[in-house]
Amino acid sequence: MLRTLAVFAAAVLVEGAAAKSVELRNVSYDPTRVFYLEFNAAFAAHWKAKTGDDVVVKQSHGGSGKQARAVIDGLAADVVTLALAGDIDALHEHAQLLPADWQKRLPQNASPYTSTIVLLVRKGNPKAIKDWDDLIKPGVAVITPNPKTSGGARWNYLAAWEYARRKTGSDSGARTFVAALFKNVPVLDSGARGATTTFVQRGIGDVFISWENEAFLALKEFGADKFEIVVPSLSILAEPPVAVVDKVAKKKGTTAVAQAYLEYLYTDAGQDIAGRNYYRPRSPQAAAKYAAQFPQINLFTIDEAFGGWAKVHKTHFADGGVFDQIYSR
Amino acid sequence: MAAGFISQLSTTEPAAGAASIRATRDPAWLRYTLLGAALLFLGLFLVVPLAAVFTEALRRGVGAYFAAFADADALAAIKLTFLAAAIAVPSNLVFGVAAAWAIAKFQFPGKSVLITLIDLPFAVSPVISGLVYVLLFGAQGWFGPWLQAHDLKIIFAVPGIVLATIFVTFPFVARELIPLMQAQGTDEELAALTLGASGWQTFWRVTLPNIKWGLLYGVILCNARAMGEFGAVSVVSGHIRGETNTIPLHVEILYNEYNFVAAFAVASLLALLALVTLGLKSLVEWRARQPVRT
Hints:
The complex is a heterodimer of chains A (329) and B (294).
Chain A: H1 2-18, E1 21-29, H2 33-51, E2 54-62, H3 64-72, E3 79-81, H4 85-95, H5 107-110, E4 113-114, E5 117-122, E6 142-143, H6 151-168, H7 171-183, H8 192-200, E7 207-211, H9 212-222, E8 227-230, E9 235-236, E10 242-244, H10 246-252, H11 255-264, H12 268-276, E11 280-281, H13 284-289, E12 299-300, H14 302-306, H15 309-317, H16 322-328
Parallel strand pairs in A: 1-2, 1-3, 6-7, 9-12
Antiparallel strand pairs in A: 3-10, 4-11, 5-7, 5-8
Chain B: H1 2-12, H2 17-24, H3 28-57, H4 61-70, H5 72-105, H6 111-123, H7 126-137, H8 144-149, H9 158-169, H10 171-184, H11 187-194, H12 199-228, H13 231-237, H14 247-256, H15 260-289
């Protein structure tokens, strides 16, 4: 008995001496809060079992554009998990924090999960919102965050734009449509979560253009008897990407664990957590498992419709771009 | 006071009678309407929100209320807030006394510039003051490359939060002391000096006792603002949970995560701090009005 105790104590001591404690910082966008809470715990257990080291992941959340700005200004993130590739491109462009080809370093455009944009309305759909067209009707108050600071809002904007372009057949038609839509927006919050609380908690607005996962989360938190999801006839395939911030991770000596952290997102366990938190998983098995919870939507990608984020950013969201022009009028 | 004045009038001039009372005294309905309006206004804008904070915080019982403070991130936020205040308040105390002493007791060129500079943090939006630090110490800022080369962290770390707090609470102590010291003049100090006291002795035995209540008042206000500051701190924080969140930032996070009970519980801590501050402030005001005992 004593002997076993002694052996056990020795084992614990050896284990204690060998185990390192690593800290990772994940700078993320607004609606991933619950997802990464669950994922971080799973990864910590996985890493402990694999290497014996403890890993603590510290989170920071906010509007995707705002978060990218903070990382550029020196917020030391080992990994970024943002709402769109353009925001991670900015880390390369303005601060050379990672190489230009960062999106090729992980499978599927470095986006381990996808989502899309849907419309959330109040129960019974009192304003009879069925598709994008209904958002520009007079008297319909639309809630969306600010495309200058929020990644989700950019997806919203582009989904509406492409819908109108296909309908009117021209960019100028799309521009008129999106301008009319933003006329119906009473408040522009800086991030998706702020906009959700504006719609859900403060009761402002008739329809909320939302991340699909954020809409599901609102239904779960506040009850399906208060809101309804309206699926538009066309929407955008949103690919929120992830990347190791090379310069920071190298300096802190966390490159290996940061890389393993992101790769774990693609494993069965990671994909399952994504599906459970209403992100559309990439792996066929997890996608099949959660297929029933997601509506069928006709989706287009940003590359096929707009030719990628760099182009979109320059035309629409840069200073003096289309968004500035239509919103200041 | 008006009522007392009226009653005096009517007793010294009984002949004028009821007519003069009516002429000089507002009618009852007007007085009660004004009083009612003031009370309603106070109730709506101060008491109801304050009550709402505590009601929401206790909605799921005392257990849930205290659970909000057991959370590691909440504790870290509370610690950081107290740390920032513990550095900012003494710094501004020393600076405030020095500046007020210089401004009130001496003449020197550039005095009005100094007074204007002290007021700057009141005039500038807190968000701008935060951004200024990002421009100075951010990775792309003036000192950014040097700081990075030496592995020093200012913004998105504790020093940035302390700096931002010091900046926004800068004027409180000095602003409180300058008018007081100017009103007191330099007579007592001059008397002490002619009696052979040194500069330090004059400060400790003459100046400081004269300003102690005003000083305490300034410190209390300074502390309240230091703990409650949101805007400037939000800009330089980076919102890293358990590291760079102060109490007000933590409240926002909890609220945004639909964790309303915890959000209001932590907010009630700030409200309690405010109430304690108000109590202390009244006590100081009351003590300051007492006749000086010799």
